[in-house]
Design goal:
The complex is a heterotrimer of chains A (140), B (115) and C (247). Chain A has 140 residues and is an all-alpha fold. Chain A is 69% helix and 3% strand. Chain A has a two-stranded antiparallel ribbon. Chain A is flat, with a radius of gyration of 26 Å. A five-stranded mixed β-sheet of chain C has the order 2-1-5-3-4. Chain C has a two-stranded antiparallel ribbon with strand order 6-7. Classes of the chains: A mainly alpha (140), B mainly alpha (115), C alpha+beta (247).
Chain lengths: 140, 115, 247
């Protein structure tokens, strides 16, 4: 091979290459897409917090206002949207709880609890919290 | 002081995420699916209002909603930042997300006081 | 195997080209071959100019990390049969500048590793007469997992944040910092915390988790980073609420 052909290249100033990261880098690998989907559940959490407060606000404004809000909740497209939101919230819960044992090192009698045990403890907490909410709203 | 802010933001994100994970699915199942479909009756104003007006409920709701909003703000900020590579807009995105969360938090506080 | 396996290998010769190119090779592979064996065959019999790193050929040195069909793997630990029928795409590690062909420049990693002081830091050294620093098996168990890192940088290749944010310390560096933070003989957690708790230290991480998924030694750098986030947050709250308390 003869001398360098690429202008600007010399043996002591090599041209290292960095690729350009595509805008939709997260579409290129399934694990990345799942990651972004997981992160976007934050929108469901934000929406829920917002609309929950709107529901409380309708309470604050009186019975007629609350009735209007309840009617809005009963509209078919709204129910459909909220079923989707419920699905996203459950996805948030499942993914969040699966990650929690990696961050939490719990010890019992100076031994580290295995990840599965910590995960089961989290699921137990989810069960208890859900039961409390159900009891409060339905029976209370 | 820039570097000491992240732990607090992460703590709020973390708290909001955990509370949302534990409490929201059951709450939304009842409030926005079961009730509108008639499986549960939450239309009686006085029962529901009485429930929410309790001081513990007010404080609890305020704390919960605040953390949930900051959970969204922190996570969405990073998703935009990394997902769409909007590094040059970092300050704007931070202001929009945390700013919106703060404003909504204050609004929630006001609502829960006048309730 | 009867049929030669097609390997599509990324070439980059900066003295003749501006951008990397692809070159195809048909390699008559034996059934027990690793990807590395195929690369060695190409270099020995087809094109001696193919440049790549390898050393121990048994998965302990961390030299031969590359992207095979888009996945960061150790080429000495990946069977050709696991990527059949081919064509098999081989590229250099992501996130690092490519020097030539399959060789990346990893000096950024080395620099960041040095910055977290990956050695036992003592406030006061014991004298020789006092003997060794003793450690129970349980104390060693606290950090043992993180000491398994072979610096192969597959985690850096898998982490999208590292490629997106050039100042991010990265999974292996933080895992190795944890290895020393959790070592009972070490007294340097505070010093390391200064580097780690910077904006581009651990806080860039959004727990994608791919680093732990590709680690050949089960170091779980993602877990190390999340644990550090918890520690760092507790520390931040303590210094806020109890500034008088010495650490």
């Amino acid at each position: 091979m003869g001398g360098p052909v690429n202008p600007g290249y010399t043996r002591h100033h090599p041209r290292w290459h960095r690729r350009r990261i595509p805008i939709f880098w997260w579409l290129e690998k399934a694990s990345y897409t799942k990651f972004i989907a997981r992160e976007l559940t934050s929108l469901a959490v934000g929406y829920t917090a917002l609309v929950l407060m709107l529901q409380v606000w309708s309470l604050a404004r009186g019975p007629e206002s609350y009735d209007r809000f309840v009617s809005w909740l009963q509209l078919r497209p709204v129910v459909a949207l909220h079923i989707v939101m419920l699905g996203l919230l459950v996805y948030h819960s499942v993914t969040w709880l699966s990650l929690a044992p990696r961050a939490l090192v719990l010890r019992f009698a100076r031994r580290r609890l295995p990840g599965t045990v910590v995960l089961l403890m989290h699921y137990a907490a989810w069960l208890v919290a859900s039961a409390a909410v159900l009891w409060l709203l339905v029976a209370g | 002081m820039r570097r000491s802010r992240e732990p607090f933001l992460w703590a709020m994100f973390s708290g909001g995420g955990m509370l949302a994970a534990l409490f929201l699915p059951a709450a939304i199942l009842v409030l926005w699916v079961a009730a509108p479909l008639g499986w549960v009756d939450l239309t009686v104003y006085d029962t529901f209002a009485g429930l929410v007006r309790h001081p513990v409920a007010r404080f609890g709701l305020f704390g919960f909603v605040s953390l949930a909003l900051f959970h969204w703000a922190h996570r969405f900020r990073y998703t935009l930042y990394d997902g769409l590579q909007l590094y040059h807009l970092n300050d704007l995105i931070a202001a929009l997300t945390y700013g919106t969360a703060t404003v909504l938090c204050l609004a929630a506080g006001v609502i829960l006081i006048i309730l | 195997m009867t049929e030669p396996v097609t390997f599509q290998i990324q070439r980059y010769r900066p003295e003749v080209e501006d951008e990397p190119t692809w070159e195809s090779f048909g390699v008559p592979c034996r059934s027990e071959w690793m990807i590395l064996d195929a690369l060695n065959h190409i270099k020995d019999h087809v094109d001696g100019s193919l440049s790549y790193r390898w050393a121990c050929r048994m998965g302990v040195c961390g030299s031969c990390g590359m992207l095979v069909n888009g996945e960061p793997v150790l080429t000495c630990a990946t069977y050709v049969t696991s990527v059949l029928p081919g064509p098999v795409r081989v590229e250099p590690l992501r996130g690092f500048p490519v020097m030539r062909d399959l060789v990346s420049d990893i000096s950024d990693f080395v620099r960041k590793l040095e910055s977290v002081k990956p050695w036992i830091v003592r406030k006061s050294e014991k004298s020789l007469e006092e003997g060794e620093y003793l450690q129970t098996p349980r104390e060693m168990g606290e950090y043992e997992q993180y000491s398994m890192c072979i610096n192969c940088m597959l985690c850096y290749s898998a982490c999208p944040i590292y490629e997106l944010e050039p100042d991010f310390l990265g999974p292996a560096v933080i895992a190795l910092a944890q290895r020393y933070n959790l070592d009972s003989r070490d007294e340097g957690s505070e010093e390391r915390m200064d580097i780690l708790s910077r904006q581009d230290g651990i806080w860039c991480c959004t727990f994608v988790g791919e680093c732990s998924a590709v680690c050949p030694k089960n170091v779980d750098p993602a877990g190390a980073i999340q644990r550090l986030k918890v520690t760092s947050t507790v520390h931040a709250f303590k210094s806020l609420l109890m500034p008088w308390a010495g650490r």
